[in-house]
Write a structure and sequence with these properties.
17-stranded mixed sheet, 4 helices, 17 strands
Length: 273
Amino acid sequence: MDTVSFLKMHGLGNDFVIVDARERALDLSPDMIRAIADRHTGVGCDQLIRMEPSEHGDVFMRIWNPDGSHAQACGNATRCVARLVMDETGRDRIVVETVAGLLASEATPDGISVDMGEARLTWDAIPLAKETDTAEVDLGPDAPAAVCVNMGNPHAVLFVDDCDAVDLAHTGSALEHHPMFPERANISFCTVETPQRIRVRVWERSAGPTLACGSAACAVVVAGVRRGLTERSITVALPGGELDMTWREDGHVLMAGPTALSYHGILAAELVA
């Protein structure tokens, strides 16, 4: 493979390796993705992003987890890719196409705002293993009932007294693979501080603990409203920083927050061989 350039970007510490395949094909095998994502011997990232030509938007964003599996949605990565295209074009509104749908994005004084689409709430759309009330999903005696939401990927939101006290590595991993989730799930532990603010820690499907997760923040605002705990516009405070979230009356979830470019470079030949 020829020399491959990349950008390292992050949204609130949720970090990405971004490669550009809009002008030339760039095949990436699962082995390559795992090698690039490795934080000790590669570049290191929560997800690898490939920008591609889009038939319906301004850019197509394809997403891989660090284990080489595909991801359907990533809110923080969407903001990063939107920023790149806005900087290229000089426009303040663009559309990012993903396998989960078209995500309208616009520049704000403090970063990028993205319409993450409509929250899907039925058991079969999430999906769950059986029909149940998705606002009160029983995950067994060791976990509070979860609110489950699909934001292009499956999420389970659990409200606890102190999310910082949760053993995230143990509990998050176990719940990700719970039999109720046939496609596994992202797991968020949340503490409501006020009706306008929720503190959150996230175990991300296939990636583990993360400093921030945009689609999880979308699920959290939906869950807070469904449980009657929060207003429709709130701040979601993650370990890496804060996102401004709104669940509109039409079902769409808006997410706004900052992006950052860490550096750019060339992938070593060993990583893409």
